[in-house]
């Protein structure tokens, strides 16, 4: 079927996908839902070759790119996808991409547009809640988190609430349980807890770091340092409390996630790769 749509006064042909192509698109979405991003990219390839630039396929391409951690590529894919069959999904995805790029004002505008089209989207309420958290609107963030929970309590349960002092004790315990030869490297390195990564931290790398990161080591790792280096700050390990609380459903899971995050960031301090972590007692 070919539909004719007006765009800026021009008449633009929009050719819908066939029933078989829609089934193939659904297969890609199912693979993303299962966490099989690599297979989703493979399955999407022939469709993109057959229908280059198709608005509905641009939407799927953006979703796969976002799951691959390629936010800039996702944004490029969305250019020209405004005429897709699902405008709410278009605005949601573009808002999610802008969020990953640390462009929170733009992300908020797109998330609000998505909710104007589909006000019962739990995913978009959750996204807008995270955006508003970074914009400092705690009341608005809470409102949208609660709406997401009401719409889909299984996927968006109420965030774990733990007093700051209790959270700090979990971090201190995780540090104290590190192997002695690892702890000695932390004597001059602060382990800091912050609510969320600040904008300057997110923008410190290109592409930007995800606003949802759980922890981060900032500084030069031990393998990069030399004996004749000029004196400089040792750096720091950051843990981001709100992000950690959001991904954990109970205190036991939180304690485990804090321990894993501390170990992971200490591994970055030491310049270790994943294979070295177990050797140092950090796996």
UniProtKB/TrEMBL annotation:
Pfam families: Zincin_1. It comes from Eiseniibacteriota bacterium. This is Uncharacterized protein. The lineage of its organism: Bacteria, Candidatus Eiseniibacteriota. InterPro entries: TPR-like_helical_dom_sf, TPR_rpt, Zincin_1, Zincin_1_sf. Keywords: TPR repeat. TPR repeats lie at residues 88-121. It comes from the Bacteria. Gene3D superfamilies: 3.30.2010.20, Tetratricopeptide repeat domain.
């Amino acid at each position: 079927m070919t539909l004719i749509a007006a765009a800026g006064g021009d008449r633009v042909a929009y050719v819908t996908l066939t029933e078989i192509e829609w089934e193939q698109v659904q297969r890609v979405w199912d693979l993303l839902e299962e966490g099989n991003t690599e297979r989703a990219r493979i399955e999407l390839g022939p469709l993109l070759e057959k229908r280059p630039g198709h608005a509905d396929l641009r939407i799927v391409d953006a979703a796969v790119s976002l799951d691959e951690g390629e936010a800039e590529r996702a944004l490029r894919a969305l250019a020209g996808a405004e005429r897709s069959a699902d405008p709410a999904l278009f605005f949601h995805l573009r808002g999610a991409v802008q969020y990953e790029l640390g462009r929170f004002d733009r992300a908020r505008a797109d998330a609000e547009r998505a909710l104007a089209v589909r006000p019962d989207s739990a995913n978009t309420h959750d996204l807008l809640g995270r955006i508003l958290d970074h914009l400092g609107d705690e009341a608005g963030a809470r409102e949208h988190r609660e709406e997401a929970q009401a719409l889909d309590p299984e996927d968006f349960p109420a965030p774990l609430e733990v007093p700051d002092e209790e959270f700090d004790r979990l971090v201190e315990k995780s540090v104290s349980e590190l192997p002695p030869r690892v702890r000695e490297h932390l004597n001059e390195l602060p382990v800091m807890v912050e609510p969320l990564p600040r904008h300057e931290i997110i923008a410190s790398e290109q592409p930007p770091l995800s606003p949802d990161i759980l922890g981060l080591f900032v500084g030069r790792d031990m393998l990069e340092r030399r004996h004749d280096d000029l004196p400089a700050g040792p750096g720091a390990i950051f843990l981001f409390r709100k992000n950690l609380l959001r991904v954990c459903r109970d205190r036991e899971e939180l304690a485990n996630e804090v321990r894993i995050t501390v170990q992971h960031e200490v591994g970055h301090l030491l310049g270790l790769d994943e294979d070295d972590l177990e050797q140092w007692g950090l796996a």
